[in-house]
Design goal:
Blueprint lengths: L2 E2 L1 H14 L6 E8 L5 E8 L11 E6 L2 E6 H7 L3 E7 L2 E7 L5 E2 L5 E3 L1
Parallel strand pairs: 1-6, 2-5
Antiparallel strand pairs: 2-3, 3-9, 4-5, 6-7, 8-9
Length: about 110
């Protein structure tokens, strides 16, 4: 399972409102090869996802008011992760607190296991 902090939930709601994104639009979370540590996070709204066509290769979650879709390969890397949002001196944006990451880059955008 993936959790979402209250700050991240608030920012997701704000983005939905600003962009006119409906509540039933899924937030796609993923991991792809790349970045200085080997793996990078992906986060985007999937306006075309149809949950009735989801196969066994995708996990669907509802965390509070947010619908998530994660492919199984990414889920193996993300299980137990918390999605957070900060707007402090270190920069504004979403951050993944991933207990599976053995190493992260200094910018926090990529990781390795």
């Amino acid at each position: 399972m993936i959790s979402i902090s209250a700050r991240a939930q608030n920012r997701i709601k704000q983005i939905r409102s600003e962009q006119g994104i409906t509540h039933n639009t899924y937030l796609r979370v993923g991991v792809v090869s790349g970045g200085c540590s080997g793996l990078s996070y992906e986060l985007d709204f999937d306006r075309d996802f149809d949950p009735s066509t989801a196969g066994e290769d995708q996990k669907l979650f509802e965390v509070d008011d947010t619908l998530l879709v994660i492919d199984m390969r990414s889920f193996l890397y993300l299980a137990g992760t918390e999605l957070d949002y900060t707007d402090g001196l270190q920069g504004e944006g979403f951050h993944f607190k991933n207990p599976n990451a053995s190493r992260t880059c200094s910018c926090g955008e990529s990781f390795s296991v």
